[in-house]
């Protein structure tokens, strides 16, 4: 007797096209969209077995659906992880990943530099339910160590951060968290699973807004939580099943198809971002450019250690504050003004007056978000057209 052959292991671009596919009896080429709430059973015994867990089939689309399962499996394969769960939005993923682990009396540590809604959860929502939180400067490892308490159960970070693109040492924070008996959840939206693998760096759980690069064409909202099977079963599965922030199978289908082209899109967008960052850095109207793989990024060495590329987003300061930043944005033709990112369309954001307006001038100053700061999410347009557009913006500044 010969041993069973080990299944062939494919590289990520291949898995992003084929991974997790569940083909129906019709043998469709493209992944099927199962727009169904529930499932029918051939007999009463079969329904009983499904609910007892003896038969692993689908029960109800609040927590199990074939199209959603394909999306989850494909993301899990990309992360080399055991398990993933999709959610209606990125914020639903963040909320479940954090809240699913907590009870009253627990303590959470997180950097101040967080996506606005993530900061609301840690700073305002959790304390209402008896969970205290400490917000720190995430780039300072001593502050992480000092913030740990005996009841610290969860640490949560985002790297690169939005919009300053600060890099936080994921491996070091995972170590500090684990020594204190806490877990580390990483919001990996800016890097995407292709440029950074938080689980391999020691994180316990990774969350995404699939609204961003996974969809990649600005259509649907979605989120996904990636972790070990044990983590998902202990903290996530039941929370999602019973509270119900489920992704629509239609949106999961969009994400699933988006994953097929993710490497091609992201690499093209990153190439444009690298080129535009270098261009901006050489312009007299620009005071500062922040892009992780540029040598002048404050945490360049760390970025090179934990990321395989700088991604599609650039932050930069124009000289002349808000007026200059507004003149720049208003002079653009191709680049659209929007608070979103990761789209095929290039998008420009003025964080001080939009995404980070609510936190106030003091918190903005603390986080290095000046009135002249702009965030550019590079799309798929011809990079020469984008640079011409930026030149027009800079002319309006100067
Ligand atoms: C967009 C975003 C989110 C929230 O995702 P939604 O899909 O809009 O809910 C969370 N974290 C980061 C870093 C994001 O960019």
Write the layout of secondary structure elements.
Blueprint: H1 12-18, H2 44-52, H3 66-78, E1 83-87, H4 90-99, E2 107-111, H5 116-128, E3 132-136, H6 141-147, E4 152-158, H7 170-179, E5 183-187, H8 192-195, E6 205-209, E7 223-227, H9 229-243, H10 249-281, E8 286-290, H11 300-306, E9 313-318, H12 321-330, E10 336-337, E11 347-349, H13 360-366, E12 373-377, H14 383-397
Parallel strand pairs: 2-3, 2-4, 4-5, 5-6, 10-11
Antiparallel strand pairs: 1-7, 6-7, 8-9, 9-12, 11-12
The protein binds pyridoxal-5'-phosphate (PLP).
Task: Give an overview in words.
It is a single chain. With 398 residues, this protein is of the alpha/beta class. It folds into two domains: 10-260, Type I PLP-dependent aspartate aminotransferase-like (Major domain) (Aspartate Aminotransferase, domain 2); 262-397, Aspartate Aminotransferase, domain 1. It has 14 helices and twelve strands. The strands form two sheets. It has a seven-stranded mixed beta sheet with strand order 1-7-6-5-4-2-3, with helices on both faces. Strands 8-9-12-11-10 form a five-stranded mixed beta sheet. The radius of gyration is 22 Å and the shape is globular. The model has no long low-confidence stretch (mean pLDDT 96). The site of pyridoxal-5'-phosphate (PLP) has 15 residues, from helix 4.
